[in-house]
Amino acid sequence: MKRLILAAVLGIAAFQASAEPLTFTDSTWTTSGFSSAGTASNSAGDASPTTPLPLTTSAPSADLDATASGDAIADLDVLGALATAVASADGAASAVASAAFLGNFVAPGGLLYLLLDIDLSATSAQGDGFGEGLVRITLVGGPDLLIDEIVRTTGIFDRHFELPFGTAGFLNIEAVGSAEAATVGDIAVGSASVIFGLRTVPEPAGLALLLAAVLGAVMASRGPRRVQARSFA
């Protein structure tokens, strides 16, 4: 029985592995950061294709012993944003950081699979500081808004959807970190990172046949035991 279950699991894994990345007709990555500490402030940003990947942006500020920074990175299938703020007795601090991806595509027809691995675990705060990390996800196919969500928890986000052949659409993913610290003793960190992929899903006929075969074998293996049990009754 264990061998049958293992065969089914391996079959499903092979099916998922056979999914191919969707080809985007054009893609743009952007990064931005802003910070304010005391009377000082700073901002920075970058974008592809003007700058080759990976993009890295840092916008630090320091004044009156208060410090803050907005930092972001964007690379192929990876986005990260980190905002930090440390207040002093004489100065408040705040920061915002963002990393985003925008990709246009033409659907090849059939099922598509969107998978995001989101990590917001570095977000923290001390005193009355406030830190937040989030990931915005927008997916449009033709005239339809398929996904429009803001995720504020660490974990896996995945969706399956089907689009007819030739449907134009776009995927927009943005990681955002923000931090605010108002008075001495306040420290805040807002962090968001995400690894993402949009893939085509092959025809499920092979998987269906495999599962049917496993189910048939399981039922066949159970049949004789039921007959034998009745014979001892």
Plain-language structure description:
- The protein has about 230 residues and is an alpha+beta fold.
- It has two helices and 14 strands.
- Strand 2 (about 25-35) and strand 3 form a beta hairpin.
- It is elongated, with a radius of gyration of 25 Å.
Which keywords apply here?
233 residues; alpha+beta; elongated
Whole-number mean pLDDT: 86
SSE order in H/E notation? Answer: HEEEEEEEEEEEEEEH
Strand content: over 45%
Q: Using only CA atoms, what is the Rg? A: 25 Å
**What is the quaternary state of this protein?**
single chain
- Helical residues, percent: 10-25%
Assign the structural class, choosing from mainly alpha, mainly beta, alpha/beta, alpha+beta, or little secondary structure.
alpha+beta
Gap between N and C termini: 25 Å
The biggest beta sheet reads: 8 strands, antiparallel
Which term fits the overall shape? elongated
Number of H/I helices: 2
Low-confidence stretches: 4-17, 224-233
Number of strands: 14
Can you describe this structure in just a few lines?
The protein has helices at residues 2-17, 205-231, and strands at residues 20-21, 26-37, 40-47, 55-63, 66-75, 78-86, 93-106, 110-119, 124-126, 130-141, 144-151, 155-163, 168-181, 187-200. By secondary structure, it is of the alpha+beta class.
